[in-house]
Design a protein that fits this description.
With 274 residues, this protein is mostly helical. Helix content is 55%, strand content 5%. The protein has a three-stranded parallel beta sheet with strand order 1-2-3, sandwiched between helices.
Length: 274
């Protein structure tokens, strides 16, 4: 009903998504909301008109949270709001995946790391490796090198994984047609989405909806597909060992002992030159 009740509800982290009009909260309240979302990560959709009243709070939410902004009166208002709500990420999945990838993320430059963290938390951001490079002010070759050095499989795989993570809740718990989810994700068809799901989760959208993976299993599969094993750090025992060839045994007569070749030839009746 009011800001006080909102803050009380935020202290009980049982919601997947918060929908907020920045024009209705003060900058101080926006700071409090941002602090709460840092402690209890959840999706935030900021739905407001473009107005002076909303500006200060919007700036705070944009700087301190991974809010997805939808503005009233824009031509794509309805589709943008639908996408923001239907593709609300599974907060636990995103948080645990980022925890699993923490060691890799720490090896990235700060700007790239922050962009990827936001991408996995909201599912909203660059939709191609070239767009990710542009958003982080990196040359494409530099982007690929940084990701490879951090242990990631590829820039394309990272972007697809963020897209899948953002759609996981909709795929597994909503009644939205899978073909419509695929379209909102930017895929040309459900078959294309299923192909990506198979790569990352070993399952199709229909199979996931019928029997969702646990968060732990989904995180495990995503982590395996997103990262590559550093061969330089493999223990010595895992390195291929040289297998020596056993010495050839000398031929033996049946029931006898090994003899020189000329003795064997003589025993068989062959003529042996001196």
């Amino acid at each position: 009903m009011d800001v006080r009740e909102l803050l009380t509800e935020l202290a009980s982290p049982r919601d997947e998504c918060i929908i907020l009009d920045p024009a209705l909260v003060s900058p101080a309240i926006a700071e409090t909301i941002a602090a709460n979302l840092t402690e209890f990560p959840r999706a935030l959709v900021a739905f407001s008109s473009v107005s002076t009243a909303a500006l200060e709070s919007s700036v705070i939410l944009a700087r301190r949270t991974s809010a997805r902004f939808v503005f009233r009166g824009t031509p794509n208002e309805r589709s943008a709001l639908e996408r923001a709500l239907v593709l609300t990420p599974e907060s636990t999945l995103g948080a645990e995946l980022l925890t699993a990838l923490d060691r890799n993320m720490k090896r990235l430059p700060t700007g790239l790391r922050e962009r990827l963290i936001s991408l996995f938390r909201t599912g909203d951001g660059p939709s191609s490796p070239d767009a990710l490079a542009a958003a982080t002010a990196l040359a494409r070759r530099s982007l690929d090198r940084y990701l490879a050095d951090a242990g990631f499989a590829s820039a394309h795989r990272v972007i697809v994984a963020a897209r899948v993570t953002s759609a996981y809740r909709a795929i597994t718990t909503s009644g939205t047609p899978l073909s419509h989810i695929a379209a909102m994700l930017g895929y040309k068809s459900q078959r294309t989405m299923d192909a990506q799901l198979m790569v990352l989760l070993d399952s199709t959208g229909a199979r996931l909806r019928a029997g969702p993976l646990s968060v732990t299993e989904a995180v495990s599969r995503l982590t395996q597909r997103l990262t590559v094993r550093d061969k330089r750090r493999q223990p010595r025992s895992s390195q291929p060992q040289h297998i020596s060839t056993p010495p050839m045994r000398s031929l033996k007569l049946v029931g006898g002992t090994g003899q020189p070749r000329h003795a064997r030839r003589a025993a068989s009746g062959e003529t042996v030159n001196p």
